[in-house]
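Sat 14:20. Reprocessing the chain from the morning session after the first attempt stalled halfway. Input below, unchanged.
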Amino acid sequence: MRIGIIKQRFTGLGGGSERYTSGLVAGLKEMGHELHVFTATWDQSAEAQCVILHRVRVMGVLSFTRQWSFARGCRRALEHASCDLVYRVERSLCQDIARAGGGCHRE
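Finished this time. Tokens:
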């Protein structure tokens, strides 16, 4: 299965969501899935996970504008990726499965 994962900062190290995403990617790769990660930044440990990385530009200095531009960029990038399933770890405009973490969410 071709799975898209949305994570603005895709690193092997870092906080809870970074470790969670890294473990998720490793498990899905082990199961034989093709993974496409839509991200603004990544590090060498992320490159070593053998996923297809899609750089999504982030613009703005305010947190809201950065999140909005990342979400819009992911939506555009996903139009060309032909993923069977899209899973998001970040706030996004288009996903099949959403992980609500990192604090409170209205919905």
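The mean pLDDT is 82.
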